Amino acid sequence: MLIPRAPRVAAAGLALALALPALAACRTSPDVAAYVGDARVTVTELQRGIDERIADEGVAAFADRSRPDFARRVLGFLVEREVYAEVQERYDLAVGDDEVRDRIDELMGDDDPDQVYAELAAQGVSRTDVTETIRQQLVREQVAAAEGAAGTDDDALRELYGEAREEFAQLEIGYVTVPDEATAAAVLAELTAAPDGYAAVAARYPGDATLPALARRAPEDLPPVLREQFTAAAPGTGFTVPVQDLGVVVGFVTGEVFPPFEELRDELRGRAGQEAEAAGAEVVARVRADLDLAVNPRYGVLDDDGRLVRNEGGVVEIVSGPPEVQPAAPGD
User: Fold this and answer.
1) Which residue would you say has higher pLDDT here, 257 or 51?
2) How far apart are CA 240 and CA 72, in angstroms?
3) pTM of this prediction exceeds 0.85
4) CATH number assigned to the domain with residue range 6-158+263-309, chosen from the 4 options 2.40.230, 1.10.4030, 1.10.287, 1.10.1390
5) Cα atoms found within 13 Å of the Cα of residue 257, Cβ hemisphere only
6) pLDDT tens-digit map of 21-37
7) Is 34 helix (H, G, I), strand (E, B) or coil?
């Protein structure tokens, strides 16, 4: 879901703490705000972009803090829009409005859109900016696929599951706390002979230190005091450990198990999406570097590294690659 609270918005990338592109200090005209290859962002277009954004009272309040900085921010968005237009042209890609709306709806989840957009506006981010950011995210995914990166459909995810399956290995374990060593030895022998009877055995010794049914645990999620014994035990075997003030813990391991694909689908999709994002961003960076970018000096000056800065020397934040927008983690 698109994250509605300011810290979560920042975590999802919509706070737009934007990096700076390197720009060439050439080709200036009083009517042109920026050159992007053969494309131009005119001063009129820039002003229209500013006016459209500050029509939102929340964005206007943000812009009022520093109109020159806000103008540079908007210029950054417009420059990046042209960069992505070039990417789409070079790779013959197209992202439809319906795709953008579907992705926004997916990220928004059950959140109130008006509330989300209001909180983004307070950070100077307009609805137009969100739409373009999502469009660019989809372009990166498409260009990554064109470059051979793994997709996020079920077939691709099943292939990824097969490749990464071992990473998700878990142990199926149980532990029962009994009063003494003799009982522990008898319980361990009973479990070893008939693992399917674990629940019935555990029911005879209920308590906080008894697991009522066999459970799957990743190695890092095993009880710390028993982790070493569990990981060392062979499948179908167990161990006994005296624990002060509790009695004797009988640990039992049925063996290694793997979560089914359906259980891991969301995690695999997130992993595939991150890989695609990185691959797509790399392509966009190559295209951006190949373009002759130049900015009208009235909007800032270029430092020795070709970065757009305020005339007084302060670095201005401007888009260099749009931030990623992701669903919140479960429970956020």
Assistant:
1) 51
2) 68
3) no
4) 1.10.4030
5) 14
6) 444 444 557 888 888 88
7) strand
